[in-house]
């Protein structure tokens, strides 16, 4: 049985890889909702050449959402942005889908377990949880993909590791294991779940590996043959104090660190073994593969 999948956010880092993996599956017809201003971009050309259909539209244009969702079985969202995108836009897309008989939606969650977060502590988690709740009220079935953090956060220049200073920074003692997954494996799993009619609605969690900040630093040091010194920036109390005085943008980044420090949003009931042919990339392999790219970024 072939399903038509509508993908929103296909020009993004994750979205383009989801499209790639969907197109590699024989039971998927892929339709991509894209703004007219980006419909001719290079990132879309290989996807269209591989058989994807383009529908020009916008999340705030009801007519285009109606057009895009006709004949669709599953909506996959990988959009990023503020409330107008994550909340208003996704809910509008879900309403159009429900009206046109879409079976289910995979909202743009893709994180640690945002449903365990304390309301008001993490703006991005709050938005996603609110969107998911409103989609549920519409009556559209949803599967909430949770893969932890992306492994990219441990690449030099992407946050935790300062290659020039030779440090990896964290709050707390840096010993708590965190669920991490590569973008590629996340996209591969999303594509499989989107076509799997037997996946139950609700949380669908998986992870490439569980690894602590200290372990990540040791692996990067071994692969680069350069020392990486663990450096604690303070306790959870210090982190919460920094959040209280931070700008809105900075507070979001600190909120991610908060949940990586206290483990409140850790993933449980991982479904790594659902598709036996899928093998997740280990962190050491990801670092060895990605460091040459990071060095020239």
Automatic annotation (TrEMBL):
<dbReference type="InterPro" id="IPR036291">
    <property type="entry name" value="NAD(P)-bd_dom_sf"/>
</dbReference>
<dbReference type="InterPro" id="IPR051609">
    <property type="entry name" value="NmrA/Isoflavone_reductase-like"/>
</dbReference>
<keyword id="KW-0560">Oxidoreductase</keyword>
<dbReference type="InterPro" id="IPR008030">
    <property type="entry name" value="NmrA-like"/>
</dbReference>
<keyword id="KW-0521">NADP</keyword>
<dbReference type="Pfam" id="PF05368">
    <property type="entry name" value="NmrA"/>
</dbReference>
<protein>
    <submittedName>
        <fullName>NAD-dependent epimerase/dehydratase family protein</fullName>
    </submittedName>
</protein>
<feature type="domain" description="NmrA-like">
    <location>
        <begin position="1"/>
        <end position="230"/>
    </location>
</feature>
<dbReference type="GO" id="GO:0016491">
    <property type="term" value="F:oxidoreductase activity"/>
</dbReference>
């Amino acid at each position: 049985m072939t399903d038509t999948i509508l993908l929103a956010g296909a020009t993004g880092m994750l979205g383009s890889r989801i499209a790639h993996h969907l197109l590699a599956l024989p039971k998927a017809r892929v339709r991509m909702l894209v703004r007219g201003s980006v419909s001719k971009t290079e990132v879309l050309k290989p996807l269209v050449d591989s058989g994807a259909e383009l529908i020009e539209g916008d999340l705030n244009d009801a007519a285009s959402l109606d057009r895009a969702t006709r004949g669709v079985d599953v909506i996959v969202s990988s959009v990023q942005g503020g409330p107008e995108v994550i909340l208003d836009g996704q809910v509008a897309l879900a309403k159009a889908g429900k009206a046109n008989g879409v079976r289910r939606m995979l909202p743009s969650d893709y994180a640690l377990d945002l449903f365990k977060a304390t309301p008001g502590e993490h703006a991005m988690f709050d938005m996603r949880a609110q969107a998911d709740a409103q989609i549920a009220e519409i009556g559209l079935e949803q599967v909430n993909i949770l893969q932890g953090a992306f492994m990219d956060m441990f690449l030099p220049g992407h946050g935790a590791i300062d290659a020039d200073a030779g440090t990896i920074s964290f709050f707390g003692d840096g010993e708590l294991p965190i669920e991490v997954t590569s973008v590629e494996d996340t996209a591969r799993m999303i594509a499989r779940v989107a076509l799997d009619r037997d996946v139950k609605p609700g949380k669908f969690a998986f992870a490439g590996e569980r690894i602590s900040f200290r372990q990540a630093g040791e692996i990067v040091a071994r692969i680069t043959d350069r020392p990486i010194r663990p450096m604690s920036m303070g306790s959870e109390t210090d982190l919460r104090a920094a959040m209280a005085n931070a700008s809105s943008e900075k507070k979001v980044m600190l909120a991610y660190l908060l949940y990586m420090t206290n483990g409140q949003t850790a993933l449980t009931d991982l479904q790594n073994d659902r598709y036996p042919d899928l093998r997740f990339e280990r962190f050491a392999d990801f670092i060895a593969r990605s460091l040459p790219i990071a060095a020239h970024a």
